[in-house]
């Protein structure tokens, strides 16, 4: 999703430089089986050229037809497709299973204000910080600031919309194990950038990384050179204290939104004592580490443990 977001931004910057007015569209909310998640982007020109997606089909066609006919001239407005009050009456649009799609449409003339917005978007998608954009619905000035914490990409307020914009979500897997294999698979299916670190040559023999980036080094060394940004989750999954403990010590120095390590409650208590005594971690740092890792699903198999781990990562990322 974030790669597509950057494609939308770069197309918008080219068109803005050519002098085109832009219609910047953000999916605000979906109900039922609407096909795009909140935060999805589309940018369009008056001549119908566009990049990005709102629904993957019929909504875009109707929107562009209305745009060509002169609709959506307000600086900012919320429109809806599908079921429910206030939805656009569009006979050619059919969202599956009675779905509903709400979209924020901003009209940006080819001026300095639009240039600033696009530059801010590009920086937020490339940099390490998670940013928050507040859009007044009365057409007032948008405001950017550092986000307080991960959470829903879009939140409605009285008279405004808050949108979180940041780098692609990353999962750093510390150490290869049967659980690591499933975590890598699940995370890639969920759209994470996945990095797997393990210095042990023999550990890689049966590991199938898919699209994950593989680093044959200590995870702690990787994190030292690539500090975790605000959209990073770090999970240690080997049961090897020499590897897992060093990872935890380094992970808490970054801005990761999720840090967790596998082990029983007894193992976790012993690890916390080691990290306090030998690693010098205080209560605040230890409080950032989920020990044991994951949701309590009664997981037994490696796949179930990986499922509990990724479910917990997504829960925290979504601000739940």
TrEMBL record:
Q: Where are the transmembrane segments?
A: none
* InterPro entries hit by this protein: MoCofactor_Util/Proc, XdhC_CoxI, XdhC_Rossmann_dom
All residue ranges annotated as the XdhC- CoxI domain in the record: 15-68
Domain named XdhC Rossmann: which ranges?
Answer: 171-313
**Name assigned to this protein:** Xanthine dehydrogenase accessory factor
Q: Which organism is it from?
A: Halomonas stenophila
